[in-house]
Amino acid sequence: MDAHVLTEERPAGGAAASPAALPPTYLESLLAAGLLIETGVRGLYGRSAVFEGIADALNAVITRIGVDQQAEVLRFPPALGQTDFETSEYLNSFPQLAGTIHSFCGDERAHRRLLARLEDKQDWTDQQEPTGLVLTPAACYPIYPVIAKRGPLPQAGKVVDVLSYCYRHEPSLEPTRMQLFRQREYVCLGSPERIVAFRQLWMERGQQLGRDLQLPLEVDIANDPFFGRGGKIVADSQREQKLKFELLIPVNDGAPPTACMSFNYHMDHFGSLWHIALEDGSTAHTGCVGFGIERLVLALLKHHGLDPANWPQGVRDTLGDV
Amino acid sequence: MDAHVLTEERPAGGAAASPAALPPTYLESLLAAGLLIETGVRGLYGRSAVFEGIADALNAVITRIGVDQQAEVLRFPPALGQTDFETSEYLNSFPQLAGTIHSFCGDERAHRRLLARLEDKQDWTDQQEPTGLVLTPAACYPIYPVIAKRGPLPQAGKVVDVLSYCYRHEPSLEPTRMQLFRQREYVCLGSPERIVAFRQLWMERGQQLGRDLQLPLEVDIANDPFFGRGGKIVADSQREQKLKFELLIPVNDGAPPTACMSFNYHMDHFGSLWHIALEDGSTAHTGCVGFGIERLVLALLKHHGLDPANWPQGVRDTLGDV
Question: Is pLDDT at B18 greater than 80 in this prediction?
Fold first, then answer.
């Protein structure tokens, strides 16, 4: 296992000691055990059969505990159309995280230029043109325009079940901060009261799931990583209004605990942007509970060990076959 | 359902008739039934629970009929590192299909410029910079560098099981030609004899699966869509050497049948690029069987109807619970 890139720039803390004397970081342990597979890019890893088995088991549990929601299951590929992405106003808040997809659209002459650049080890991407697709930044984004197009929602609202690979441009050495990772979400659209009750229900269910998985956890008010100085104000306001809570579990060595679930109340943000209305004509409010699938797998491996066969029986019972 | 974009430019054949008088295309039927969900972008669709149920059932069957391969299961997110992508020489053959991921890396001033462009409905993507990630063009691409790093393969070779969303920049009105779609593959690495036998085995198993699913099929020699005039020569050579076979099923209205599986012998192409060796020091040959998950689902829906509950019992038995 070539961990050169990783050991060279390991997180601060052991800089004075010889690299050989340091215990492996959690990421290094995961790579050595073959649970994650290095690709040479920070935050981009392959997953082993064992890792995927735990991910599948988690998704099955989340389905089971959500069965009373009678959610509509919708699955989208990991990209949005650019027009929908623009409407979402993601670029106002998180321009630094989004990923646009670009392609070569030139002729044979341009292709020869591309190959010459490649051969000379120069940048060949200058000929790439935007395709009109943007990688999905959060699993719920594709559903708002789809639901909006269907017309007014029933007054009781509705719940949608989504799961998608999401992209965020934040290369990191923390295994919990991947550039491509899966989010499972239940998204609720309805009256403000419906959303508040939905969020409360899932904050309780999320904590119960964490306890059933025998993970140390706390729930706290949180904010999204809004861009720039102006973003600080938006983040403060989000905290003041208690719009976002996170379920936090310690995962990374010597770092603050990691958000493994989040419980969000968007108020009428998406309802207004997409003109999603209830039967009475009022703008729908929305909220969601999001499960970070990779983060939950990493939390389980951290606290119960790298071999699921040796996990506590209660955890294994909760997850079914792992 | 707003099918405006689709009906406006429907495939040739009914141009003289009134649009209202035309029977729906297969894509329109799938959208009307809610099996696929429109996103406003050609070749980018959401999937319903029913569609995903069929996809999951197909994957389970493919796992079952491949169990004797003792394949190593590896799963990758839908992107490669740019260095690995360059090494793959994909840009020589298919530059037009690849998708690179770009992000905004500017400061607050640049962000204000971005938002001003957005507000003026001008192109804002000119500030996007390459991130060093490229979308996966075929599910097997991430595994070659990973296997190469492990050192020589056992003389008997090995089989890897992969499944990934793949991206190809080819917007189309044919539902079988999506920009983001899933490929399931078994990839074999070993001696030339091993690969030839592997491919023969899977050509037989693929046809048997097609017959069990009661789909009309034929197997034919094929070639990849190599770019440009030079690509024609490469494609001809690929056909002459019988390196690629496809299992074809009629799916699209009035169009040639669609490749739903492919059986490929790469000779030493990837083995040489990545320096993958066998125990005796010789360069590994590789081959793969690829299953187009969306295409197989679409073939089933086309031939057996849009409601799996009404499919022939033999098909339902083959797929297990759909």
Answer: no
From B84, B111, B131, residue closest to A39, measured CB to CB:
B84
- Which domains occur in chain A, in start order? 47-99+137-319 (3.30.930.10), 102-132 (no CATH)
Strand segments, DSSP code E, in chain B are 36-38, 45-48, 72-75, 79-81, 100-104, 128-135, 158-167, 180-190, 218-221, 244-249, 258-267, 285-292
From chain B, the residues in CB contact with A118 under 8 A are 86, 91
Under 8 Å between Cβ of B240 and B221: no
Nearest to B101 among A73, A135, A178 (CB): A135
* ipTM metric: 0.93
Sheet holding A79-81, edge to edge: A79-81, A128-135, A100-104, B100-104, B128-135, B79-81
* pLDDT reading at B7 higher than 50: no
Give the position of tokens 């496809």. Answer: B246
**B178 neighbourhood in chain A, CB within 8 Å:** 77
Cβ atoms B145, A40 nearer than 8 A: yes
Q: A104 and B96: CB-CB below 8 Å?
A: yes
Task: Say whether A103 and B99 touch across the interface (CB within 8 A).
Answer: yes
pLDDT digits (tens, 9 = 90+) for A220-276: 999 999 999 999 999 999 999 999 999 999 999 889 999 999 999 999 999 999 999
The encoded tokens of residue A300 equal 């389980």
User: Would the CB atoms of B79 and A145 count as touching at under 8 Å?
Assistant: no
pLDDT at position B19 is 55
Nearest chain B residue (CA) to A145: B39
For residue A150, is it left (φ>0), alpha (ψ between -120 and 50) or beta?
Answer: alpha
With a cut of 70, list the residues of chain A below it in pLDDT.
1-20
Question: Nearest Cα to B73, choosing from B86, B59, B87?
Answer: B59
Q: Do B46 and A74 count as a contact with CB atoms less than 8 A apart?
A: yes
- Is B99 within 8 Å of chain A by CB? yes
Cα A307 to the center of its chain, rounded Å: 24
- Tokens (6 digits) for A111: 């292709």
Identify the pLDDT of residue B23: 87
* Residues paired with residue A81 on neighbouring β-strands, in sequence order: A133
Give the global pTM. Answer: 0.93
A130 touches chain B (CB under 8 A): yes
Interface test with A, best of B45, B52, B87, B104 (most A CBs within 10 A): B104
Q: What is the dihedral of CA A171, A174, A179, A181, to 10 degrees?
A: 180
Print burial letters for A253-270: b (CB count within 10 Å at least 16), e (below 16): beeebbbbbbbbbbeebb
3-state secondary structure of B68: helix
pLDDT tier at B3, thresholds 50, 70, 90: very low
Cα radius of gyration (chain A): 21
Instruction: Tell whether A74 is within 8 A of chain B (Cβ).
Output: yes
Q: What are B39-74's pLDDT values in tens digits?
A: 999 999 999 999 999 999 999 999 999 999 999 999
Helices (H), chain A: 4-8, 26-32, 49-65, 82-87, 90-93, 108-119, 143-149, 192-212, 228-240, 269-274, 293-304, 313-319
Encoded tokens for A68: 């009373």
- Closest to A202 in 3D by CA, of A154, A261, A144: A261
> Chain B contact for A167, CB < 8 A?
yes
Q: What is the model's pLDDT at position A9? A: 41
